[in-house]
Design goal:
single chain; 15 helices; 80% helix; mainly alpha
């Protein structure tokens, strides 16, 4: 147990390139970056959870309608996520090498590319909303609400896409507090407007699902304004100007391409797997789909802490590799892993003990007792999944931060695109486990990704000198 906290034993003598700081110092420096990211992701996840609860007040069919839009929305976002993985990797390396000019040039290039993507994707989503959602498993009782929600949210893609890139650049620098303030403020606006617009308050008519979508768009707009203010005429590390904005910078585009294309392949493969999985869940009926979304919402809130660790790990790895200290990159990653796994064990215990209370926040036990009981039991499987999910995601952050996105793309294909839908289908239908079988398939997916990522990390091949 003591060796877990001995940083000198985390790498071999041959790997050491200099003095190795003690566990406390590494943990302290890491948590300065990770803690704001954790607070941000947890709070945003909490707001998302409240968002689902508010929609849940309209019934399980409303939750099912909104959940149908999740995968097509995430597929549009994955293009920005891929670009931003490359942006974070480039900016974090530039920060470690003390190259501020490179960091700002990278941000400009990504914003320019964002604008092209936004124009294309917004047109597709608004024009083809109905066939897209029918393909995703919408039924006659959910299609109208799903289309209305999807079209409104798609209008806000311009704000969300640009905000995501700016906050990704700040994270690469290590300024996770800026991203935290941006997203928490926007989330508070979102939930406040949900209260007003969904059920109708202060003289405003009740807009139902459309009100939830409108609140989301306004929240994205607020985040966009804050993020723009953080870089425009800024005295900080990142500063945006229009000088040279409309020119393509080959020196910047090359590392963005090297990392971003693999990241895009990873994102698309993941989303393909998630989409197949979502269509399978939709085929189980509106009630089961609603129960699935409730358990997924709770699990997602717990997962936000792992996401915070992954964001911080990506930035820290980039900084150390930019400093040409592979040894410290490995040590920092191991320290972050120790802290994150400890956190996952606490979350596992919490969810097991309080699962019925958590489910009760979404489902009224008196109105829908069968759904409440089913969801409470399903949360046991969800809690088991938290530990491998936490481990694999933090390691994914490490690999992405180092630019090793080809490997994460491969693991996504194996695990998310093939294993999750295949075994979920077999367990759900072949063995007759229903929704439980689908979740067992999710657990297997997380275990495989955890195993593959741990193997890759131990190999040391992720710690490349350049992108």
């Amino acid at each position: 147990m003591i060796s877990l906290f001995n940083t000198n034993r985390m790498i071999t003598e041959e790997e050491k390139l200099g003095v190795i700081p003690k566990f406390k110092e590494v943990a302290s420096k890491s948590m300065k970056i990770i803690l704001p990211a954790m607070i941000e992701t947890f709070f945003v996840g909490l707001i998302s959870m409240m968002d689902t609860m508010m929609v849940g007040g309209l019934g399980l069919d409303a939750i099912a309608s909104v959940s149908l839009t999740n995968q097509p929305v995430y597929i549009t976002i994955c293009f920005f996520v891929a670009l931003n993985i490359g942006l974070t990797a480039v900016v974090s390396r530039a920060k470690g090498a003390n190259n501020q000019n490179l960091a700002n040039r990278a941000l400009k290039q990504v914003i320019l590319l964002d604008l092209f993507l936004i124009a294309i994707l917004t047109f597709i989503c608004i024009t083809f909303a109905r066939p897209i959602l029918f393909f995703c498993g919408a039924r006659s009782d959910t299609i109208d609400n799903a289309v209305a929600y999807f079209r409104i949210v798609s209008v806000g893609l311009v704000f969300n896409g640009l905000k995501l890139s700016i906050t990704a650049a700040h994270r690469g620098v290590g300024k996770t507090k800026i991203s935290m303030i941006t997203n928490i403020t926007a989330s508070i606006v979102n939930v406040g407007l949900n209260y007003i617009l969904i059920n109708g308050k202060f003289g405003i008519p009740a807009l139902g699902v459309e009100g939830a979508a409108l609140a989301t768009v306004i929240g994205h707009y607020v985040a966009f304004i804050i993020s723009i203010c953080s870089i425009y005429h800024s005295n900080g590390y990142l500063c945006f100007t229009f000088k040279g904005f409309f020119k393509f910078d080959k020196e910047v585009l090359l590392p963005l391409k090297n990392v971003g294309l693999s990241a895009l392949a990873e994102q698309l493969l993941m989303r393909a797997g998630f989409l197949i999985f979502a269509i399978m869940i939709a085929s189980l009926g509106t009630e089961k789909q609603g129960i699935h979304q409730v358990c997924l919402s709770i699990n997602s809130l717990m997962f936000t802490l792992a996401d915070g660790f992954a964001i911080g790990a990506a930035a820290v790895v980039g900084h150390r590799l930019g400093e040409k200290r592979k040894d410290l990159a490995k040590v920092y990653c191991r320290v972050i892993q120790v802290i994150s796994v400890s956190t996952a064990l606490v979350l596992f215990t919490f969810v097991v003990i309080f699962r019925e209370w958590l489910v009760g926040l979404y489902i009224d036990v008196e109105l829908e007792p069968n759904a409440y009981e089913y969801a409470s039991k399903l949360m046991i499987v969800a809690s088991i999944m938290l530990i491998p999910q936490n481990i694999q995601w933090v390691l994914t952050g490490v690999l992405r931060g180092s630019g090793d996105t080809k490997f994460t793309a491969m693991t996504s294909f194996i695990s998310v695109t093939v294993v999750r839908p295949l075994f979920s289908f077999l367990l759900c239908y072949g063995f007759g486990f229903g929704l439980f079988g689908a979740w067992f398939g999710m657990v297997l997916d997380q275990l495989i990704r955890m195993t593959l990522n741990m193997w890759r990390f131990k190999s040391g091949k992720w710690a490349k000198e350049s992108l």
